[in-house]
Structures are given as structure tokens and as C-alpha cells.
Amino acid sequence: MYEFLRFAGVGIFGFFVDISSFYILINLLSFQIFDARFTAFAIAIFVTWLGNRLITFKNANKENISKQLFKYVIVSCSAGAVNLFIFNALIIWGIITEISFVIGVLSGMLVNYFGIKTGVFKAPV
Fold this sequence. Notes:
mainly alpha
């Protein structure tokens, strides 16, 4: 349970990094909106990977860093796709936006947690 709470804490921090980076890139560095969104998302993935490596799964298998980061990016993007798919499907089915948003985020979070736990930061054998 504590592992999941640490994961959620890292994720919340990652969210603030994501949104802060996005607005800094847009407002201070004059990035175009889609370039800013992509860059902010990439920064947030790196920050959450580092946080999960150092805090959430600190006792997990420490494989090659670049290989681990690559797998982390794949899992995170897949979880993001699940989030967006569920959100869009619920909107199409007539579910209100706020509920669709929360269910999408929670679904993506669960996919992300289990994918990262089992595919990126494997428990020591």
C-alpha cells in the first residue's frame, strides 16, 4: 500500500512539473502550443521516472539506466493512451466530462502503476 502511495505522490509531483513546464515553455520561452505540450510531457516522464527509481521502487532491480528509461517511456505513453481512450469513449457514450476525466485518469494510473511495477522496476529475485 505504501508503495502505491509513494507512486501516487511521485505522480502528483510529476503533474505539477508537467503543467509548470508547459506554461513556462509557452509564456517565457515562446514555444508553440504542441511543441510545449510534447516537451513538458517528456520532462514530466523523466522526472517521474527518476522519482520512481529513487523513491517508489528504490529496492527494485537496477538494470541499465537507458534501457530502463526507454521501457518507462513506453509504459507511460501506453498508460496515457489508455487514459485518453477511456475518456473519449465515455464522452461518446454520454458520460459527463468530469466523471469521464476522472475515470480516464484513474484507469491510466492503474495501467501505469502495474506496467511500471512489473515491466520496468521488477522486484529483486
